[in-house]
Amino acid sequence: MSFTLATWNINSVRLREALVLRFLEEEAPDVLCLQECKSPVEKIPTEGFAALGYRHMVARGQKGYNGVAILSKLPMEEAGAVDHAGLGHARHIAGRLENGVIIHNFYVPAGGDTPDRAVNEKFGQKLDYLADMRDAFHAEAPTKSILVGDLNIAPREDDVWDHKKLLKVVSHTPVEVEALGAAQEAGGWVDVTRKDIPEGNLYSWWSYRSPDWDAADKGRRLDHVWATPDIANAAHGSRVLRHVRGWEKPSDHAPVLATFDL
């Protein structure tokens, strides 16, 4: 069984329904994981997605912020949702495919603007969330699993446009990178994107604040595809669809894709 999976922070699935439909029509991944849906589950516009063959969905939603959903052409059942750090936020949903593969879709807290939990509660919440992810993977080692989502951290020096300038900027600080690395190590997760694209600058997010995001190219790789070691070698064909960031009224994130032969 071969399937292609995509992850995309859509920044409001209702506002950008047309972009999701365009993406599904043009790329037709078998599974699409969305973050920051900003919608209660019952108000996610599923009819158009179902018309394109995406008849299966598992999701957690909230009005106006957060929210995660997995759309699938393949039969899929819900495999749980975890409220890490007890925030009461819709930031995780898991789905199980018929071949037993579990897909975890995460939206890790962004962490605010100041990388100091003493003065910025949101940064503390982000670190606590990552610590809970780490502890959960230690407690029960994941197998035959894929983890995707907006993890809101660009871990490598070539995952950001300027490593030195961003060392004190939330999403690339050493404490965040260390926390994400600890969660990754706890589950034995393999960074599929960097397995397939091991060298060179690679970004999936460009700020709305840039008047010409494409020319400035001050990006960060905040969106990730990981897999457990037992299936990581089945992954290939990773790519970031940078051009989607240039669509009209876009999300500030671009979709990230990978194919699995399982």
Notes on the structure:
This protein is of the alpha+beta class and 262 residues long. The protein has a single domain (2-261), classed as Deoxyribonuclease I, Chain A (4-Layer Sandwich), CATH 3.60.10. It is built from seven helices and 14 strands. It has helices at residues 17-27, 46-51, 121-139, 174-187, 192-196, 213-216, 229-232; strands at 2-9, 31-35, 56-60, 68-72, 76-80, 92-97, 102-107, 145-150, 190-191, 205-206, 219-220, 223-227, 235-240, 256-261. Strands 3-4-2-1-14-13 form a six-stranded mixed beta sheet. The protein has a six-stranded mixed beta sheet with strand order 5-6-7-8-12-9. A two-stranded antiparallel ribbon has the order 10-11. The N and C termini lie close together (5 Å). The mean pLDDT is 98.
